[in-house]
Design brief:
By secondary structure, this protein is mainly alpha-helical. It has helices at about 1-20, 45, 50-75, 110-115. The chain contains four helices and no strands.
């Protein structure tokens, strides 16, 4: 579904670029040339086919942009930045490194907070003074 909307979106982009480039300049861009607002609200200025086509294409571009953002939100899956990699169970502890937060269960911090039982592990032999940890 998302690929179809992207193709429609790209076709709208190309059509919008083409319609904008086909329009005739009014000659008063940024106030240069003294082109007053004489044709601004006249029937020639508002009933122009290219102007209406530009407005319709811009509205469709806006709608497809919203649809694409909604579709992107549906396929998003929550991820955790805290559930990093943990050391294997049989690996020796490296001096100076911190132990895994949630034990060797492979879960993250959120699993530990939910009350997931951690696998019992034998305490590592301290190689020097240890920092007390709260449990």
């Amino acid at each position: 579904m998302q690929h179809v909307v992207i193709v429609i979106h790209l076709m709208l982009v190309l059509a919008l670029i083409g319609v904008v480039l086909l329009q005739r300049s009014e000659g008063g861009g940024l106030g240069i040339g003294g082109g007053g607002g004489g044709g601004f609200m006249s029937s020639r200025g508002t009933a122009n086919v290219l102007t209406r086509a530009t407005a319709i294409l811009a509205g469709l571009f806006f709608c497809t942009s919203l649809i694409l953002s909604i579709l992107a939100g549906y396929s998003r899956k929550p991820t955790s930045i805290l559930g990093g990699t943990t050391a294997p169970v049989g690996a020796p502890a490296v001096p100076g490194s911190s132990p895994p937060i949630s034990g060797s269960s492979g879960g993250g911090v959120l699993d530990a907070l939910k009350g997931a039982p951690a696998a019992p592990t034998a305490p590592a032999v301290p190689s020097g003074p240890q920092v007390p940890q709260s449990k």
